Amino acid sequence: MTPLQQLCQRNLDLLQRLGISHRLVEHEPVLDYPTAHAVRQRFGLRGVESKSLFLRNGAQRYAMLITLEGARADWARLKALLGSRPRIASDEELIEQTGCVPMCACPFGHDASITLLVDRAVLTCDFLLYSPGPPELTLEVPGSELPRLLKAQPNAQLEYP
User: CA–CA separation, 9 vs 83, rounded Å?
Assistant: First the structure.
């Protein structure tokens, strides 16, 4: 299995193990929000698109900012949380550290060394839409289940903003 396939399997296995109801749809690759909106409409997906930014903070320290479509990063707040100003990691770093495809960073299922910065707004969604890894797949997960999903992650987590 490729790292991307392994990431996808970890995400699906975790949902199954936790008994979290979800919907998985297969479609053309989604690498931008206009395509995501078209897929959402075509399949009748409910919820809000996630936005995951893979950040580098110093030498070999990484974090995944998990927020919602349209949200803007508050770099001052991120610096306060992480201790130094992060930058968006390169495409190569994203691929190497997570297995994700650039423009399609998955929010969950990553190595425990990657800190999760969780936007509180994510926890208010009725449903969260995100890719489990491959840009051809979208998960629809009830927002009410996100606290359980987050609790099951091995990663350090910081509340944002």
Answer: 33
pTM here is: 0.96
What structural domains does the chain harbor?
3-160 (3.90.960.10)
What distance lies between CA 156 and its chain's CA centroid?
A: 15
Query: In this structure, what DSSP letter does residue 101 have?
Result: B
Distance linking the first and last C-alpha atoms of the chain: 36
Q: Give the Cα-Cα-Cα angle 78, 128, 138 (nearest 5 degrees).
A: 110
Contact yes or no for 46/126 (Cβ under 8 A): yes
Q: How much is the pLDDT for 33?
A: 96
Beta bridge partners of 102: none
- Tokens describing residue 126: 């009725």
pLDDT band, residue 58 (cuts 50/70/90): confident
pLDDT higher than threshold 90 for residue 30: yes
3-state SS, residue 85: coil
Residue 128 has pLDDT above 90, yes or no: yes
